[in-house]
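Anyone up for a design puzzle?
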């Protein structure tokens, strides 16, 4: 399980939102596919529920630990600077994802436009992941990120003793999902969802 990566203090949980958004978009997209396997839908739902539990535990842990929140903000600033140095624009991606979320809430949105917007959101999320990966190649960012993750997990375990078990279950289900996705036959729809 990769914990939420803070971008800026004011958007500390925004990547959590992005993860949830992409999972929600994946679920909504999958539900629109007639040939989608019901087991995959169930697995996506279970992953979303586990992610929400972990996000809530993390929120409580950070809320009760101001020093850790401050470090999250500093790490976020370091990540943003490193991402920008690598040519990425994380705030622009986050802003576009927020715009897409608002558009997806429109009741009269054309189904084809909905699919295009969901694909664009996935693309923006991928850009954020790529930018974070590039930033994490820097030793200073990697060291700060690893220490922060360890400290967050420890704070989460202090908040909820079941954290390790939930993380393990999330990791197991995520691997199962990826294996099932890799084994699924390609159709035009699954091709689009894997781009």
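Challenge accepted. My sequence:
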């Amino acid at each position: 399980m990769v914990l939420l990566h803070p971008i800026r203090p004011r958007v500390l949980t925004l990547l959590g939102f992005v993860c949830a958004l992409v999972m929600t978009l994946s679920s909504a997209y999958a539900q629109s596919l007639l040939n989608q396997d019901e087991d995959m839908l169930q697995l996506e739902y279970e992953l979303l529920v586990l992610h929400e539990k972990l996000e809530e535990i993390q929120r409580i842990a950070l809320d009760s630990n101001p020093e850790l929140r401050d470090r999250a903000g500093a790490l976020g600033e370091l990540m943003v600077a490193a991402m920008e140095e690598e040519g990425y624009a994380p705030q622009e991606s986050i802003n576009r994802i927020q715009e897409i979320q608002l558009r997806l809430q429109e009741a009269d949105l054309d189904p084809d436009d909905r699919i295009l917007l969901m694909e664009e959101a996935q693309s923006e999320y991928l850009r954020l992941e790529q930018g974070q990966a590039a930033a994490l190649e820097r030793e200073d960012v990697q060291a700060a990120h690893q220490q922060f993750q360890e400290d967050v997990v420890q704070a989460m375990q202090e908040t909820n003793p079941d954290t390790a078990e939930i993380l393990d279950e999330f990791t197991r289900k995520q691997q199962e999902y990826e294996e099932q996705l890799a084994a699924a036959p390609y159709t035009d729809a699954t091709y689009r969802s894997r781009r």
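A detail worth pointing out: Helices lie at 14-32, 38-63, 66-85, 90-104, 111-135, 139-159, 163-183, 188-194.
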